[in-house]
């Protein structure tokens, strides 16, 4: 399936025509004339509910979008992913993070070999490891139990576990403090280590490749700190573990073989939370809760594989996103969790979506003649309401929003949660309804303004409305729900990549920065500035040298 022909499909052309027909219509009128719009555009899957009625769609829109999905053989492409075809063609790899949460009896074949026994064996090792640490069977060098775990990793080896850890904070029952060290910034490592006792600190070096500059540098610095503060070389195996698909490099670094948990080439970094990369989380919440999270993801996998296109939640969200990007010319999408525990969701989805679908050529190497992945942004509600929501309501751009809302709180004090929900619902309502000029004039006059003055002031108060949003809701942020939620977005992103015909599973754009980074570092560290550096980079390198002694 290539992307080159996307804009020439009958379904695409029908959508382009349909866009002309409905783009001037207001959702307000659709709600006024259809008492069942909420039920009509509503889905349930794996414990999640999706209200997508506040979108610029009619039944005809959905029918045409679903036709496009069929024209792109979306079900066939989804099957190819689950069945282990090497759909990541530029890296010649299958895409099988779903095997990590395969609770069914299905074999998952890679090069003819079932990977499930190895997956289960690794889970068994994780369980034993968690048991020993959480029950204080495995202790630090002076026989004290561990109090702190430092997870060293970046990108997918950081964002997923961090999101799940903060999402599931109410389930932390081990007393361990979990710290995530990602950035190559002396400040980050200093601030983490200064609070820790080496004798009671466990390190997990998390790197699929075991070649990522930031992670290796941070890991070496932690090792140094450990050795300079009471630990000995002989104590290292008690305190340093690793998760990697590059066992040789982890061994070379000095991690004891029995402390290395495997990863596999067929798991992309941004999809690796479900593997041993999730260890810090499993240490915090216990392996049973970790398994519940995997089961939530598995339930979403089964839904994605088997639900018809019309009832398929990830596919529906993918099609809605495509509708806005390709027909409304929208280039961003906001993620708005109304749950403090889910506050890291926008950051995780930024990597998931933008590293996956920030692509300009099709999987066959043709330049696309349509837009692909949008900019993902967002933040936790209600804080965002007092910051960036102004642009959502009255800006010249419009950004479709996903409101994400647990209906019950883990911390039910007073009427806080009803107030939080009321904010969430009133934001999506305001985006939909807006405020007309007549309403603004009437409001101003009711507040005591003269009609003439009200007419002059009213344009400032007009809110166009007709701005689309999804509302994802569920009872509570539990392990199963969080697993289903993250998997939902994984599949939405994969489905969009399949529709756009891009490879959502490589990330070559990231590599250029890595290659140039080492040349710039040489220049900063005193070697000659290479001739081919541009004038700006030269100037900044000189400024770095000049400012060292200020
Ligand atoms: O920055 C690119 C990237 O390759 C991500 O895709 C990945 O999650 C991250 O770096 C970390 O990679 P690794 O786990 O190999 O250290």
TrEMBL record:
Keyword Isomerase annotated: yes
Pathway: Carbohydrate biosynthesis; gluconeogenesis; Carbohydrate degradation; glycolysis; D-glyceraldehyde 3-phosphate and glycerone phosphate from D-glucose: step 2/4
Entry EC no(s): 5.3.1.9
Subcellular location: Cytoplasm
Xref: InterPro entries: G6P_Isomerase, G6P_Isomerase_C, Phosphoglucose_isomerase_CS, SIS_dom_sf, SIS_PGI_1, SIS_PGI_2
Reactions the enzyme catalyzes: alpha-D-glucose 6-phosphate = beta-D-fructose 6-phosphate
GO molecular function: glucose-6-phosphate isomerase activity
Catalytic residue positions: 355 (proton donor), 386, 514
Alphabetized PROSITE patterns for the sequence: P_GLUCOSE_ISOMERASE_1, P_GLUCOSE_ISOMERASE_2, P_GLUCOSE_ISOMERASE_3
CDD domains: SIS_PGI_1, SIS_PGI_2
Keyword entries, A-Z: Cytoplasm, Gluconeogenesis, Glycolysis, Isomerase
Predominant place of localization: cytoplasm
Function: Catalyzes the reversible isomerization of glucose-6-phosphate to fructose-6-phosphate.
PANTHER family the UniProt entry points to: GLUCOSE-6-PHOSPHATE ISOMERASE
NCBIfam families per record: PRK00179.1 (NF001211)
Family to which this protein belongs: Belongs to the GPI family.
Protein name: Glucose-6-phosphate isomerase
Species this protein is from: Bacterioplanoides pacificum
């Amino acid at each position: 399936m290539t992307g080159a022909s996307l804009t020439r499909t009958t379904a695409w052309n029908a959508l382009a025509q349909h866009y002309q027909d409905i783009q001037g219509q207001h959702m307000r009128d659709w709600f006024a004339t259809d008492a069942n719009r909420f039920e009509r555009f509503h889905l349930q899957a794996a414990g999640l509910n999706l209200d997508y009625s506040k979108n610029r769609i009619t039944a005809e829109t959905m029918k045409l979008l679903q036709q496009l999905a069929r024209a792109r053989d979306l079900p066939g492409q989804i099957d190819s992913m689950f069945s282990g075809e090497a759909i990541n063609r530029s890296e010649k790899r299958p895409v099988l993070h779903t095997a990590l949460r395969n609770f069914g009896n299905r074999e998952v074949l890679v090069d003819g070999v079932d990977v499930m026994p190895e997956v289960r064996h690794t889970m068994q090792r994780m369980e034993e490891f968690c048991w020993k640490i959480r029950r204080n069977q495995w202790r630090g060098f002076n026989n004290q139990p561990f109090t702190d775990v430092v997870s060293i990793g970046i990108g997918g080896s950081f964002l997923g576990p961090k999101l799940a850890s903060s999402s599931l904070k109410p389930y932390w029952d081990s007393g361990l403090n979990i710290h995530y060290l990602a950035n190559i910034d002396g400040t980050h490592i200093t601030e983490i280590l200064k609070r820790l006792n080496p004798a009671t600190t466990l390190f997990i070096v998390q790197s699929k490749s075991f070649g990522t500059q930031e992670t290796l540098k941070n890991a070496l610095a932690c090792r140094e700190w450990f050795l300079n503060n009471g630990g000995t070389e002989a104590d290292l195996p008690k305190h340093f573990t690793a998760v990697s698909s590059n066992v040789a490099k982890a061994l070379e670094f000095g991690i004891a073989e029995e402390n290395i948990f495997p990863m596999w080439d067929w798991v992309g970094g941004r999809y690796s939370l479900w593997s041993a990369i999730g260890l810090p989380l499993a240490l915090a919440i216990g392996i049973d809760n970790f398994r519940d999270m995997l089961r939530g993801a598995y339930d979403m996998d089964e839904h994605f594989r088997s639900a018809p296109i019309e009832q398929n939640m990830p596919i529906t969200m993918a099609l809605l996103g495509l509708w806005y990007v390709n027909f409304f010319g929208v280039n961003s999408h906001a993620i708005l969790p109304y749950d403090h525990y889910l506050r890291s969701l926008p950051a995780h989805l930024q990597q998931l979506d933008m590293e996956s679908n920030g692509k300009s050529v099709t999987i066959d190497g043709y330049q696309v003649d349509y837009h692909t992945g949008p900019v993902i942004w967002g933040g936790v509600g209600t804080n965002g309401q007092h910051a960036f929501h102004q642009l959502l309501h009255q800006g010249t751009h419009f950004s479709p929003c996903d409101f994400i809302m647990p209906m019950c709180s883990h911390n039910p004090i007073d009427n806080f949660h009803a107030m939080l929900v009321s904010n969430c619902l009133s934001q999506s309502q305001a985006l939909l309804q807006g405020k007309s000029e007549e309403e603004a004039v009437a409001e101003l006059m009711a507040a005591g303004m003269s009609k003439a003055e009200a007419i002059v002031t009213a344009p400032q108060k007009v809110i166009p409305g007709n701005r689309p949003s999804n509302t994802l809701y569920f009872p509570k942020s539990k392990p199963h729900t969080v697993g289903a939620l993250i998997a939902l977005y994984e599949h939405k992103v994969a489905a969009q990549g399949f529709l756009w015909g891009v490879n959502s599973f490589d990330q070559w754009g990231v590599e250029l920065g890595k290659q140039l980074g080492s040349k710039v570092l040489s220049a900063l560290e005193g070697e000659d500035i290479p001739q081919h550096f541009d004038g700006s980079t030269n100037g900044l390198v000189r400024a770095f040298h000049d400012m060292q002694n200020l």
